[in-house]
Amino acid sequence: MSDVLLLAGTRKGLFIGRRGADGRWAFDAPHFNAQAVYAVAIDRRGPAPRLLVGADSLHWGPSVFRSDDLGATWHEPAAPAVRFPQDTGASLERVWQLHPAGPEAPDVVYAGTEPAALFRSADRGETFELVRPLWEHPTRSAWVPGGGGEAVHTVITDPARPDAVTVAVSTAGVFRTEDGGRSWAPSNQGVSAVFLPDPQPEFGQCVHKIAQDAGDRDRLYLQNHWGVYRSDDAGTRWTDIGGGLPSDFGFTVAAHPHRPDTAYVFPLNADSDRVPADHRCRVFRTQDAGTTWEPLSAGLPSGDHYGTVLRDALCTDDADPAGIYFGNRNGELYASADDGDSWSLLAGHLPDVLCVRAAVIGRGPNPAEPPGVPHQLE
């Protein structure tokens, strides 16, 4: 069994877990105590994995931290890594997304923020620059904040096309660049906005999350504010695939790391009733790109359940079979080591789980270990 590193950002700190070859999980004490952690990333492109964390201090404000020793030590730059230029008249409220690009751009990391903006780093997350063409997009004056604010919360890059980047904005929809960020265009054809007078606008959709298929990089899955969609042309057009779900409202979607046409969602009852669909704790999986869906609940609570899973709180690792992970607002953290077929509770009674990320980490000649004294979370 592969060694796996798991990051769980919560409303009151970051929890780091490690699964060893024996399959047992160990967690260290929380980092960034009393800070809300909305964004985490594991960047394995360098000589050692780099952890990136977007944390919010009620006293000091938001910041981006990095660690090159799996959390034993953290570095915060003297000047804010992500900050708006003075001429924009804006100030950073939160980092919602940290996304390392692929091997085709080995030092590039993107940050999505609130106010809704995209920042690009060319030094693996040490410093960032505002991507001005998206910030200055002609539609921007008509963007409206969603319930969670106005933010760039999803970034997708394409290993085959380094200049192609897709972002999701709440509440403005999907925007895409093919020229490295010099120009951007809305990519929302087919995505409905049931809350607007025109339910099929060019932009203005409340996109909650996007994931990229493992086999076809032009195939994307989208969880909308009402509606689950698939695109087969990198977001140019979208098709509704939510018909087989108990509800097509939800926040999150994730794609299997190896198996084409396989994706996961966690349906909620409704926008006015944001609890698991039918009050049951179930992940739904498609293995045919959304034609059919199956509930996955073995090992999950069988009674009434009210744990909402947020947009970045469901993820996969890249093991084979894949690990699937999710956390909820009940403070529960669940894991599957077999593509979602069965589940176990890793931790309970945590603060609200806001985001999770997981990755296989190798045993090199000088393997890093989680800091502190490992212990099981109960």
| Largest sheet geometry | 5 strands, antiparallel
How many strand segments? 28
Low-confidence stretches: 363-378
Portion in beta strands: 35-45%
CATH topology: Methylamine Dehydrogenase, Chain H
Supply the number of structural domains: 1
| Approximate shape | globular
Question: What string gives the helices and strands in order?
Answer: EEEEEEEEEEHEEEEEEEEEEEEEEEEEE
Structural class: mainly beta
By CATH reckoning, the class would read Mainly Beta
Helix content: under 10%
Determine Rg (CA atoms, Å): 19 Å
Question: Treating each run of at least 4 consecutive H or I residues as one helix, how many helices?
Answer: 1
Describe the structure.
By secondary structure, the protein is mainly β. It has one domain (4-360): YVTN repeat-like/Quinoprotein amine dehydrogenase (Methylamine Dehydrogenase, Chain H, 7 Propeller), CATH 2.130.10.10. It is built from one helix and 28 strands. The protein has one helix spanning 132-135, and strands at residues 4-10, 13-19, 25-27, 36-43, 50-57, 61-67, 94-100, 109-114, 117-121, 129-130, 151-158, 161-170, 173-177, 185-186, 207-212, 220-224, 228-231, 239-240, 249-255, 263-270, 273-276, 283-286, 294-296, 314-316, 324-327, 333-336, 344-347, 353-360. Strands 19, 20, 21, 22 and 23 form a five-stranded antiparallel beta sheet that branches. A hairpin with a 7-residue loop joins strand 13 and strand 14 (185-186). The relative contact order is 0.14.
